[in-house]
Amino acid sequence: MTPSATAANYRRKVRTLFASLSTVLLAACGGGDGEDTTGRRVSESATSRQATTGKVHGLRNHTNTCAIGSVVQLLMHDEPLRKQAQRSNPELHLDLLRDAYHGNSNAADELDAVYAANVLHPIQARYAKRAAPGSLIEAADLWSHADGLQLPLYFVADPPREIPLQRREHGERVFGFLAEGSGDGSGYVNFADLPERDQLRGLVYNAGGHYVAYVRVDGRWWLFNDSQAIAIDELRMHRLRANEGCGVAFVVYET
User: Fold this and answer.
1) Neighbouring residues of 47: CB distance < 8 A, sequence distance ≥ 6
2) Cβ 252 vs Cβ 200: under 8 Å
C-alpha cells in the first residue's frame, strides 16, 4: 500500500470513529427529555439560573471531553439531526465505533511502518549514521535535513485547521469567513464580527484550552460549560472576544 493510500484509509477510519461517537452520544443524551447523562432529573438553581427546561441540560466532563461535549450540545439542539439520530439503532453505531477503534490501531501500525521506511530511515542513513538510537543529535539531524526527502513538507501551526473539510454550500461561506476573518491569523474571531448573527443557532468558544458551547434555545442563549447550563443575555455574547488562544472556534447557522 502506498503512503498516500494508507494515510487516506487512516483518515477515513478516524472520520468514522468520530461520526459514530457523536451519534452514540446524541442517542444516549435522549435529545432533551429533561434528564442528564446519569438519568437524574435536572433541577433549578435560582442563584446561577441553571437549566430547568426539559430541552436543556449539561454534560459531564469525563477528563478532557469539553471539546466534543460542546459539539454534542450544538448537535442536540439541531432538531432534524437529533431526530435522525434517535431513529437510528445505537447498537449499530456502537459496532461501528468498536470496529473503527480496532481498525485505526492496525492502520496506525501500517502508517508508522510506511513513515519509518520513507521518512525516518533515509534521513538516519544519510545524516545520523554515528548517532545512537534515541539520542538528541539524531533528533536534531533528523529534522534539520528534512528538505532532502523531496516531500511536500511545510510548517503547520494548527494541524486540525489544515485538514480539508467536507461541507455543504452554505458551510463553505461560513468556514471561509472564519479562516480569513481573524486579523491575527489565529483562526478565531470576535462574536461581534460574525455575519448574520440573528441566524446563529450556536457556536463553540475556545476559552484558552477549555471549550464551551453557546446555543440559542427557543430564542434564548444558553452557556453550556460541561455539566452546567446557564441562561445568559445577548450582552454577554458580545463580550466573547478573540485574543491569543481564545475566541469563537466555529459556528452553526440555521438552515
Assistant:
1) none
2) yes
Domain hosting 35: range is: 3-253
pLDDT of residue 116: 73
Residue 91's pLDDT is what?
73
Residues, the chain, total?
255
* Least trusted range by pLDDT, from 18-27, 58-67, 171-180: 171-180
If pLDDT is split at 50, 70 and 90, which confidence band does 252 have?
A: confident
Q: How many CB atoms lie within 10 A of CB 59?
A: 25
Total number of domains constituting the chain = 1
Query: What is the band of 245 on the pLDDT scale with cuts at 50, 70, 90?
Result: confident
Distance, in Å, from the CA atom of 61 to the CA atom of 109, rounded to the nearest integer, reads 30
Please tell me the pTM assigned to this model: 0.50
**C-alpha dihedral, 205 to 196 to 56 to 190, nearest 10°:** 20
